[in-house]
Structure formats: C-alpha cells, structure tokens
Predict the 3D structure of the following.
Amino acid sequence: LLLLTLARDDLIASWQRSVPPDAPNRFIINIQPDQREPVRGLFAGKGLEKPDLLPMVRGRLVSVNGRAVNAADFEEERAQRLVEREFNLSWMADLPAGNSLTAGKWFAPQDVDKPQFSVEQGLADTLKLKLNDVLVYEIAGRRLEAGITSLRKLDWDSMRVNFFVVTPPGVLEPFPTSYITSFHLPPDRAGFVGELVAAYPNLTVIDVASILRQFKSVMDQLA
C-alpha cells in the first residue's frame, strides 16, 4: 500500500518531466481524404498551428516467410494479441523525427512504388521478425507482400504519431486510407475540440490529458 501511494504520483510525474511542455496532448483519428484540407483550415481559422496529417491503412499480418501466422505460434500474450488484430500501416519518404535505424537502410528516392517494409524494433522482437523476412498483409481483401528492409527504434514518449510498419510512398496508396494526427491544445482552447467534432462528427478525438487525469484518479482511489 505504501509503494502504491508513492508510485501513483511518480509514474505520471516522471513521464511528464520527460515530455516537452508543448508536446501533443490530443490525437485525431478517422480523418477522411477529402477532409484533410478542411480540417487543417479549421485549425488555421482558430489561430492554431496546422497539424501534419499522416496516412493510415489497416491490415492484418497473415504470413511470414511463406508460413501462415497464428496466435497459437506464440507463447507471449502480447504477441498473440498483435497477430489477432489489424496493424496500422503508413507510408512516408523521410525517416520521421524520433525514429532511428537499428538495422538495414531507410527508403531511397528510387524506392517509390517498390514494396518493402520498415518495422519497429520492439514489434520485430515480439514477433521474432528480422531483416529480410518476407511479410504478407491482408488489406481490405487484398494482399501486400514485401520484405523487411529496415528496423527502427521509436521515441514513444514524444506523443507524436508513430507506426509499427511503414512503406515507401506509392505502395499503400491504392488501399483504403484514413488520416491521423496529434497536436498540442492549450488548456484555454479546450472548446476547440467540440467545434471540430461538431463540424466533422466522424472524427474521433483522444484526449491524452483526460486519460492521465482518469488514471491518476483511479490510482488515488486504490491508494
């Protein structure tokens, strides 16, 4: 009980100390392709910085090196959960901020339209994936096959949008795509979220600050 009392504040405080004051504290998901510019325009109209909207394609990992993937193949519970759900895939030309290569090479300009995957190191460790493994993802009834050409370490504490699996531009564009972003909203501008959702009801806004408050409340009750 004493340990829980001490840990309840230290868990949040230590994380907040490692995050810049202007780090993103809201996420928006399910932005449709035709809503990108209107959503960015709404930010600009309210005097907020226009967010970077990143593409997201959902796909299920079905095969590794020609062998079908099943949850029963893994003993670790996290690995079982990962292969039973869809992954969030994306594409980008440049290595994102907060990412560093641990193996292989990042996509070259001439790799546009060439199927290949860059995989997050932690995911690779959990699923026992390695450089040059060939993965097959099923996306909206179609399959995409490519090899792993790089592994990346991510800074998850940055609160930026990160993806486990990334391809070069041109590979995922033919598949159904939505967009996701994270942004910093000052406390005195909290009403902006209501205006955003009222204008675009299909959007889902995740309030990280609110989640932390709920977490702390639960910890306080346990203590």
